């Protein structure tokens, strides 16, 4: 049995790999359309589900566009370094995801 936060994504596997790398967690389970990232065998877990009709949220909110519905807050020791690392992982993830399309 597992428990966690479920997140829809256009690429469940790719987004799970992004968060696993960013957080130093591991892919606990993966199957077609679903990938689960875990901090440990007991959790917590992030569950990414494939959503083919996914519409990415925009920030700041814009009329007629998908609004952000949730976000993660992570405590870090050095905000500037953590931001730079997340931006690099995001850039790399987008390059791989975009090249696969």
Molecular structure report:
The protein is of the alpha+beta class and 101 residues long. The protein is 34% helix and 23% strand. The chain contains 2 helices and 4 strands, in the order E-H-E-E-E-H. It has helices at residues 12-23, 79-100, and strands at residues 4-9, 26-31, 34-38, 45-50. A 4-stranded mixed sheet has the order 1-4-3-2, with helices on one face. The longest helix has 22 residues, at 79-100. The mean pLDDT is 85.
Key terms:
101 residues; alpha+beta; globular
Helicity, in percent?
25-40%
| Unreliable segments of 5+ consecutive residues | none
CA gyration radius, whole angstroms: 14 Å
Rounded average pLDDT: 85
Helices and strands, in N-to-C order? EHEEEH
For the sheet with most strands, the description reads:
4 strands, mixed
The total of helices stands at 2
What's the total count of β strands? 4
Shape: globular
| Cα end-to-end separation | 34 Å
- Placed side by side, the strands forming the largest sheet appear as 1-4-3-2
What fraction of residues sit in β-strands? 15-25%
Class by helix and strand content? alpha+beta
What's this model, at a glance?
The chain is α+β, with helices and mostly antiparallel strands and 101 residues long. The protein is built from two helices and four strands; from the N terminus they run βαβββα. Helix content is 34%, strand content 23%.
Secondary structure elements and pairings:
Blueprint: E1 4-9, H1 12-23, E2 26-31, E3 34-38, E4 45-50, H2 79-100
Parallel strand pairs: 1-4
Antiparallel strand pairs: 2-3, 3-4
Helix pairs in contact: 1-2
